[in-house]
Amino acid sequence: MRVLVTGGAGFIGSAVVRHLVLDKDYEVLNVDKLTYAGTQTSLNAIGNRPGYRFLKADICDRSAISEALLSFRPDRIMHLAAESHVDRSITGARDFVETNVMGTFNMLECARHYWMELEAESKAAFRFLHVSTDEVYGSLGADGLFEETTPYDPSSPYSASKAASDHLAKAWERTYGLPVVVSNCSNNYGPYHFPEKLIPLTILNAMEGKPLPVYGNGANIRDWLYVEDHARALDLIAERGRVGETYNVGGRNERRNIDVVTRICELMDALAPKPVSHASLITYVADRPGHDARYAIDATKLETELGWRAQENFDTGIEKTVRWYLENEWWWQPLRQGYSGDRLGLLNSDK
Ligand code: NAD
Questions:
Q1: Which of 113, 168, 267, 311 is 20 to 30 A from 179 in CA distance terms?
Q2: What positions belong to coiled-coil segments (predicted)?
Q3: In angstroms, rounded to a whole number, what is the distance separating the alpha carbons of residues 7 and 12?
Q4: Hey, what domains does the chain have and what are their CATH numbers?
């Protein structure tokens, strides 16, 4: 099995690449531009495995992507490359439109031309998995869950750009017959998560005795999924998902942001004690504009149709994650130092 993964140097993409190469023994070509969010150190575990190749390229670059397809000849594309940080999309949306919308358009077009030339058997077996977010559905009230049929209603420039890319992916299936499957997942957490995101930022600021910023009153709810559970789900959806269908992915782990931050503080008190409790560092900051109140996923379709189950619950997953950051300073320290934003410690993202 040959899989072309885009964005494989990012948080979720690297978990996907590690799973495909190390657990499944697949051949993988990782296509990544290595933006500030991408680092090949997340793939150190792969070592010199012969099945793994890396190409530094922009998904908007038509000739680079076409050439990669023609030389690697994948059976499957798993498209994860994106600009992913909601706060950055609010202060500068252009990169989000270029990469998430135009980049996805380019991936679909290059894939279509490659796929059209395949022989009948390979053509029928080919899959393009477009990886997306539950944020495209907008915000929930106190009740209800996002289903695959929930209408799109994105709030941020990030989620609007992802929604646009989902529509393009579905249109390429309906119009051209490209075998596309779409997945929409809730918030991921786990090892190798870039230090600007809520959970790693909280752990690292707590470690350094810095303020732990929480938006608004901290009551916003997210549905957390351990990243390795997402990677397994994506492999399964690419393998057995029905063409033209959407699959929601979520861990049934709804938590208020303040409860997530408080739990990290408790773990830090136990694992890396300080003279004062870490919770005393919690600092409420002005709410994010357009901040969605609640996300929660109904993953019944994925569970019943494809037999997927999240293996990690939030209590064990968050403890593993805190321990991982405590033990892997070699990974996060260069990223935290090299990170150009002056927002570290001031703003965070729920993603
Ligand atoms: P990330 O920001 O950690 O990684 C993105 C990767 O894409 C990086 O390695 C970056 O270098 C690469 N990239 C960015 N622009 C590129 C371009 N123009 N060309 C080539 N490579 C480029 O993101 P993530 O959190 O791993 O998210 C991966 C995918 O999953 C995204 O499509 C995101 O929308 C989706 N998603 C994320 C979450 C989450 O909680 N993080 C949840 C659901 C869905």
A1: 311
A2: none
A3: 8
A4: 2-194+225-253+293-314 (3.40.50.720)
Phi then psi for 6, rounded to 5 degrees?
-100, 145
Query: In this structure, which residue's CA is closest to atom 19 in ligand 1?
Result: 58
What residues pair up with 282 in beta bridges, in sequence order?
A: 212
Ligand 1 pocket, 38 CB below 6 A? yes
Rounded-to-integer distance, Cα 240 and Cα 181, Å: 10
Q: Tell me the average confidence (pLDDT) per consecutive run of 10 residues in the chain, 351 residues long.
A: 98 98 98 97 96 98 98 98 95 97 98 98 98 96 95 97 98 98 98 95 96 94 96 98 98 95 98 94 91 93 98 97 98 81 45 57
| Catalytic, out of 58, 83, 87, 134 | 134
Q: Establish whether 158 is a catalytic residue.
A: yes
Distance, CA 274 to ligand 1 centroid (Å)?
Answer: 34
Tell me the C-alpha distance between 113 and 63, whole Å. 12
Ligand 1 and 230: CB distance under 6 A? no
Q: Which of 27, 135, 196, 292 is catalytic?
A: 135
First to last CA, the chain: 31
Residue pLDDT, tens place only, 276-309: 999 999 999 988 888 889 999 999 999 999 999 9
- For residue 215, is it left (φ>0), alpha (ψ between -120 and 50) or beta? beta
User: Per-residue DSSP letters for 257-309?
Assistant: HHHHHHHHHHHHHHHS--SS-GGGGEEEEPPPTT--SB--B--HHHHHHH---
- ipTM, two decimals: 0.99
Short-list 208, 204, 184, 183, CA closest to 194: 204
Would residue 135 show up in a list of annotated catalytic residues for this protein? yes
Burial label for 151, CB within 10 Å (0-12, 13-18, 19+), is: exposed
Query: Active-site residue 303, yes or no?
Result: no
Distance of CA 338 to the CA centre of its chain: 21
C-beta neighbour count of 115 within 10 angstroms: 20
CA separation (Å) from 46 to 16, 18, 22, 27, 102?
A: 12, 7, 7, 12, 31
